[in-house]
Structure formats: structure tokens, C-alpha cells
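Preliminary data (for renewal application), magnesium ion complex.
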Amino acid sequence: MSGSRPAVLFDRDGVLVRALVRDGRPYPPRSLPELRLDEDAPDAVRRLTEAGWGVAVVTNQPDVPRGLMTEETVHRINGAVADGLGLSTRSFFTCFHDDDSGCACRKPGPGLLVEAARGLGADLAHCTVVGDRWRDIGAAHRAGCRAVWIDRGYRERAPRPPYERVTSTAAAVDLILGGQPSAAAGRMPR
Ligand SMILES: [Mg+2]
Ligand SMILES: [Zn+2]
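Predicted structure:
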């Protein structure tokens, strides 16, 4: 599709939503009470939307097939995130499979990105993936998208290059929008 608008495909946990970190590893919120939006997320989505960018959310939720969470809970959390960020739940693309399923949607597979780009009417070559783990960056590579890695300092393997590295969701959006710092960029972390 030519002349398509650019879009950002955000990973959810650790990017728009605070991951729960235990022993240096990130975990998703498993209930609504555990859900906290990343403090940068509302501004990040607003700035992109105002600049005319498409925004979607692409998330692996393997805790569902692992029996740790229900699909319904994931949909509730997605709904709360959508409400909090002014997005439609139709902008959320979720994989409910684990590694052994052979599905195309579990990142680093490209399936969620392909679906999200189609939903937004965006060309994958004009999409930027923002994620906090190697699977997000791997999916960006396979789909032919730009990759921005938010390095949260987890104790796990780093993504395989190429990617652009930042350390916050606000910094990712600053980079995408051309280095204009957001009003919140100078704020100290809590
Ligand atoms: Mg994540
Ligand atoms: Zn899947």
C-alpha cells in the first residue's frame, strides 16, 4: 500500500504497562489490581496520535495456555489499558499460544505485526515496533519493521541487532518523532 500513514506497534507489558519484575525477569500483570500503566504511556500515545501516526498494541500472553491466567482476564486488562490510553480494543492484537503451538502470531513470529498493520491500513515498512524483550525485536525483523528496544535492564538475553536502544517509553517516542523531547522527558523516575 503506497502513501500509507506511519504507525507504531507497541508491545504491551514492560512498554505501555509496567511489568512486574522478579529476580530480574519481567512478568505480566495477572489481574486488574496488578495493572499499572507505564507513567509515560498516556503521553506517548497522545503525541503519536496527534502527529497522525497509527498506534496498535501487539502482545504475547503465554500465561493463558500455561493455565496461569484466563483469556477473559487478558481481555479485561487489554480493555483497561485501552481505556487508559484512549485506544480502541480493536487496536489490540494478542497471541494466546505457547512455543509448542507453532502459531505464526507468537513473537518473534511476525503474525501479530502483520495483523496490526493491516488493521491500521499501514505498510509494515512504515511501522516501528517498540518492545522490551528480544522477541519483540525479532518479530520486527521478520516483519520488516523498524525496531526500538526499551532496555529495562532485565537479567535475560539482549535482542539481536539491529535495533535502536532507549531506556523509557517516552524516549522511544522522542526518537520516533524525530528527537523532540516530550514535556515529561526531564522528569525524574519515581
Ligand atoms: Mg514486553
Ligand atoms: Zn499465537
